[in-house]
Amino acid sequence: MAERIICSKCESEKIKKDGKRKTENKGLIQRYKCLDCRTRFVVDDGFFRMRNSPLKITQAVDLYFRGASTRGVQGHQGMFFPHNASNVSIYAWVLKYSKMISKFTNKLKLKVGFEAQVDEIEFHRRKSSKAKLGTEKNFFIDSVCPQTKFMLSSEYMRTRSCRDIKAVIQRIKDRTDTQIKIMTTDGWNAYTNTLKKVYGYNNKTGKYNVVHNRVVVSEEQGNFNHPIERLHNSVRARTKVMRGFHGSINSANAILKGYEIFYNFINKHQAIGKCPYELATDLKLTQNNKWIELIKLSKTSF
User: Fold this and answer.
1) Which of 1, 22, 94, 295 has the smallest number of Cβ neighbours within 10 A?
2) Nearest-CA neighbor of 155 among 123, 182, 197, 114?
3) What is the pTM of this model?
4) Does 267 reside within a domain?
5) If phi over 0 gives left and psi between -120 and 50 gives alpha, with beta otherwise, what is residue 25?
6) 146-178: pLDDT as tens digits
7) CA neighbours within 13 Å on the CB side: how many for 192?
8) C-alpha Rg value of the chain to the nearest Å
């Protein structure tokens, strides 16, 4: 299907090609002209006015989520690219594209099993890069489908109140409609009331629309052994070398949104031999560089 092009100023579809623009990092880019307002423009593919190539940017983002630090990525790319980017730029790329892609992926409808598992990870976020200002206890609340291994919803929150948990569970309901019949959680009391509010009560059956499978374990038993704990091991393996998120809650949330994208769409899951999105969505990604494909889809979907 041909790409739909509209004017960046007046949103008219009366467009014609009008030469090409020469760029240093992306070569020749098609320029267009609006026949209504006479504006000349190029299509924003997600890398508009970026001073580095899409390949270099997405390579940096991928390396970061595979475990390299921003300075480690900088050192690696310095071996292969003549004009190296700073570690600050690399960090900015991670935040920018994690937020951009997640706006698209969060709205994808899912085909999942009958169960969703919800849990949280406790983090101690540094309030600032200055250690003397201390830390603050936060929570990463997430959910996974045991059948497809797809991370259904996640948010990095300041607390784990009913309001915070509701934001995660409401997105699960929006994305899966009536597919989820069982919600498995730990013994945290906030889950019970929140599930009832989000999924509601069926007067015909005299039951709630979702069964709450509440797994309570003691400290001696440890965590309940479910697929979500395997997911948490992967998250902790990446975040333990970050020495604590510091500064903004939004930045910490963006980083973990990026990890959700990496987990669902980029990295093959060993148990299923493919990326979780291949089982849980109708999305077809055909390029080897799925980061570029997701970025372009996130720009053309709005």
Assistant:
1) 1
2) 123
3) 0.88
4) no
5) alpha
6) 999 999 999 999 999 999 999 999 999 999 999
7) 6
8) 22
